[in-house]
Amino acid sequence: MLKLTRPEGSEPRDFDLSRRALPALFFAGYAAAAVSARAEPIHTDAEGLIAETVMIPAGDRDVPAYLARPDGRGRRPVVLVVSEVFGIHEYIRDICRRLAKLGYVAIAPDLFARHGDPAPLVDFAAIRAIVGAATDAQVMNDIEATARWLSDQAFVNRRKMAITGYCWGGAQVWLACERFRHFRCGVAWYGRLSRPAAGQFLAGPEREWPLELVGYLKAPVLGLYGGKDQGIPAADVEAMRAGLKQYRKKGSDLIVYPDAQHGFHADYRASYDPAAAQDGWRRMIDFFHANGVRP
Predict the structure, then answer these.
(1) What's 211's DSSP letter?
(2) pTM, 2 dp
(3) pLDDT tens sequence across 158-191
(4) Where are the domains of the chain?
(5) If we measure between CA atoms, which residue out of 138, 131, 104 comes closest to residue 117?
(6) Helix axes 136-151, 168-179, angle to 10 degrees
(7) Do residues 157 and 74 lie in contact, with contact meaning Cβ atoms separated by under 8 Å?
């Protein structure tokens, strides 16, 4: 059984499954280190869509991004999708296709492209090295570069942009909405809110965390959290609620699913909670609509 309880990735001891059961999923492109032997991941086809890899000019280099959008004329709203620590694997691509089926342009930039591809790895030390090499400045630069590239595309309604992300990507959603005005709203799935303890992964003083910048929030964020998430304490969720109130940041909300674990939306993991995942997805789409990001 997979027990993914840490918001920045599990430890090897969190896994108790037979690798003999994994080849079909592994070759389908799912994150090798996190896939569950009992997983039945959702598969969304590309019928009626344009699904492709595009290159985003990001200053020092072009960054690849997976793009899915309806096949047809017209300018459409955008959802920028930020991955977990495992990068742009099949789960993230499927999320983009799900959103495209609803009428969105969905794009997932590879924010680890400069440092490696964590998706096929099973060694968490190697995965951490890739993720840790992606600095705050680089990640925010690439997110902003993606938003600017989208604004220049004939198929994009630049006035209707949202951002969502999972795990590591959930924290980036908060940070992006605290730094940029490109997005009308964000939805953060179990994104860490506070700095890890000294010595822990990503605890370096050069990094900033959502609770530290809540006063700068420029767009409302919906945070979706698991009550049994051992890596994101309930006190952090309450601290964010208090910070939003203190700085009079209207429109944001945090929802906690009491029985859900970290990673409850990830349908390729044993932590997947269908009820919480489906309710969270509905709330996400409703939040987009309420904030003007509607097809």
Answers:
(1) G
(2) 0.92
(3) 999 999 999 999 999 999 999 999 999 999 999 9
(4) 12-290
(5) 131
(6) 70
(7) no
- Of 30, 199, 196, nearest to 121 (Cα)? 30
Per the CB < 8 A criterion, the answer to whether 85 and 168 are in contact is yes
Distance (Å, whole) CA 267 – CA 241? 28
Cα separation, 70 vs 99, whole angstroms: 10
What is d(CA 14, CA 102) in angstroms, rounded to the nearest whole number? 35
Helical segments of the chain, H only: 23-27, 90-101, 124-133, 136-151, 168-179, 234-246, 274-290
- Residue 97 burial by CB count (10 A; 0-12/13-18/19+): exposed, middle or buried? buried
Beta-strand pair 185-189/62-70: unpaired
Active site residues: 167, 229, 262
Task: Say if residue 205 is exposed, middle or buried (CB neighbours under 10 Å; 0-12, 13-18, 19+).
Answer: exposed
Query: 113: which 2 tokens?
Result: 């492209």
Closest residue by Cα to residue 164 from 145, 138, 144, 183: 183
pLDDT in tens, 205-234: 999 999 999 999 999 999 999 999 999 999
Q: How far apart are CA 143 and CA 73, in angstroms?
A: 25
CATH class of 12-290: alpha beta
